[in-house]
Design brief:
This protein is an alpha/beta fold and about 280 residues long. The protein has ten helices and eleven strands. It has two domains: about 80 residues, 3-Layer(aba) Sandwich (Rossmann fold); about 120 residues, Rossmann fold. A six-stranded parallel β-sheet has the order 1-11-8-7-5-6. The structure holds guanine.
């Protein structure tokens, strides 16, 4: 039976460290500020945004929410972003995705000042990650790396397989494992012999978006299995990995819920703290 990686515990530790550092910044007159923009009334987005605001309050940040109607125009949204880009009290700007279909996410993300892009989604920050010289990391892959580090797991020299090639998770995840000297394969919907490739993995990261996609026959004995999936199956939250069977073969495994999920907000807090330090010329 695998060791279950406790994302709640590690996330609490990250947030506690952020809170401690925030208290020190506040003594110097600096309060990190995060602005969260939500357009429309997607219920999942509403829950995420509420959680982000609560996390800000818990670590001592200032936060603001811009709840805009579903028929908001590009001009209206870009006007808010431009205003927030100029505000010295706002260190991080996060536009909750997905946006309503008539809005161009690429243009919106690119409009956020790259020093305030605490999601690390903008082309500038993505490029910086690619060359290994970055200020911010996208919250989900950064959360995975934090979990691995907490459990003393390094990708150095290991075979790492990432299933999924999204800009937000799969691609940056592969890059972070590569930066740690892992030998990385990124698989996707057109990959041939997927099961065989997965079976070669010492570290297997599933970011597919399909419930119970990874089965025990796809996992090597003793592999570290990280489940980034957040799927609803019969109303219940479940991951991309068939937990009951895979946990019998893996050495470490993340549960869903309680694995990678709780880490993402912790990493957002870390990025916002970093942005505040950058804006005020404070060494990390
Ligand atoms: N929607 C789902 N996850 C995220 C995230 O990490 N950032 C933003 N901006 N939107 C999301």
């Amino acid at each position: 039976m695998a060791t279950i990686i406790d994302g709640k515990l590690v996330s609490a530790k990250v947030r506690q460290e952020v809170a401690q550092q925030t208290a020190v910044l506040k003594e110097r007159g600096v309060t990190p500020g995060l602005a969260v923009i939500i357009v429309g009334d997607d219920p999942a987005s509403r829950v995420y945004v509420n959680n982000k605001k609560k996390a800000c309050a818990d670590v001592g940040f200032y936060s603001e929410e811009y709840a805009m109607p579903a028929d908001t125009t590009m001009d209206q949204l870009l006007e808010v972003i431009d205003m927030l880009n100029e505000r010295p009290d706002i260190d991080g700007i996060l536009c909750q995705l997905p946006l309503p279909k008539h809005l161009d996410e690429k243009v919106v993300i690119d409009r956020i000042d790259s020093t305030k892009d605490v999601d690390a989604f903008s082309p500038v920050n993505v490029g910086k990650i690619m060359i290994g010289d970055y200020d911010f990391l996208p919250c989900t892959p950064a959360g995975v790396m934090e979990l691995l580090a907490h459990y003393g797991i390094s990708a150095e020299g290991k075979r790492c397989v990432v299933i999924g090639r999204s800009n937000i998770v799969g691609k940056p995840m592969g890059m972070l494992l590569l930066h740690q000297n892992g030998t990385v394969t990124i698989c996707h919907s057109r990959t041939k012999e997927l099961a065989e490739i997965c079976r070669s993995a010492d570290i297997l990261v599933a970011a597919v978006g399909r419930a119970n996609f990874v089965t025990a026959d796809m996992v090597k004995d003793g592999a570290v299995v990280i489940d980034v999936g957040m799927n609803r199956l019969n109303g219940k939250l479940c991951g991309d990995v068939q937990f009951d069977t895979v946990s019998q073969k893996a050495s470490y495994i993340t549960p869903v819920p309680g694995g990678v999920g709780p880490m993402t907000i912790g990493m957002l807090m870390k990025n916002t703290l970093k942005a505040a330090k950058l804006h005020h010329g404070i060494e990390d």
